[in-house]
Write a structure and sequence with these properties.
Blueprint (H helix, E strand, L loop, with lengths): L2 H20 L2 H9 L3 H22 L3 H17 L10 H20 L28 H12 L4 H12 L4 H8 L3 H22 L1
Length: 202
């Protein structure tokens, strides 16, 4: 390939990349269903970090989580003709990863250290993104982090999905396999528990 053709090809590639960056998740998904390789590339770039961060909260084995995320995208590519359109791509992928991780945990439970696969949802610095209406932010965040450890795994998970990832109850309900009202009730009970704990500590 001569220099002119090479430059043209690179320019076209950049233009295509920019076009895919601009389209909505729903339109991107529709392109993936048609087997569009560039669409799959953008889907991966757009959601990999989100899925990896969520997976690590569910399971403290980064290598296993990364393998599961890779498997999700490989399965999408291999089975794109059997997939259905969705307006909630983010929720679909998070739900798929959650199921993949739990299936993997069950398969590995007998062969690995069971303690590695306990039903935990990790609490880390990402929770500090939760807005606090206070001037004493650092101390309050530390107190919040301590309070989060008092919650059940599902309670910590809904806090993470709702406040950190800013998902709505429809998305959360789909990911957790519950209905809309159950998602609202779970969040409400969780916040009441946090408020009670704070009232005792402050």
């Amino acid at each position: 390939m001569n220099v002119f053709l090479y430059v043209c090809a690179k320019s076209v590639g950049v233009i295509v990349y920019m076009i895919y960056m601009e389209i909505s998740d729903e339109k991107l998904w529709e392109s993936c269903l048609k087997g569009d390789k560039e669409a799959f590339r953008e889907l991966y770039c757009r959601f990999y970090a989100l899925l990896r961060n969520y997976g690590i909260k569910l399971l403290p084995d980064k290598n296993l989580v990364e393998d599961c995320v890779q498997d999700i995208f490989i399965n999408l590519i291999q089975n794109h003709t059997s997939l259905s359109p969705t307006a909630n791509v983010r929720g679909y992928l998070l739900k798929a990863l959650r199921h993949k991780l739990y299936d993997t945990i069950e398969k590995n439970r007998k062969m690995e250290d069971v303690s590695l696969y306990e039903d935990v949802f990790q609490v880390d610095e990402l929770f500090s993104r939760i807005a606090l209406d206070t001037t004493d932010t650092d101390d309050r965040v530390k107190l919040l982090m301590k309070a989060l450890t008092k919650l059940s795994p599902h309670q910590r998970e809904i806090i993470y999905l709702y406040y950190v990832n800013e998902l709505g109850h429809n998305e959360i309900a789909s990911i957790l396999g519950i209905n809309y009202q159950s998602s609202k009730n779970l969040l409400s009970r969780t916040l009441r528990k946090l408020r009670r704990w704070f009232s005792l500590e402050l």
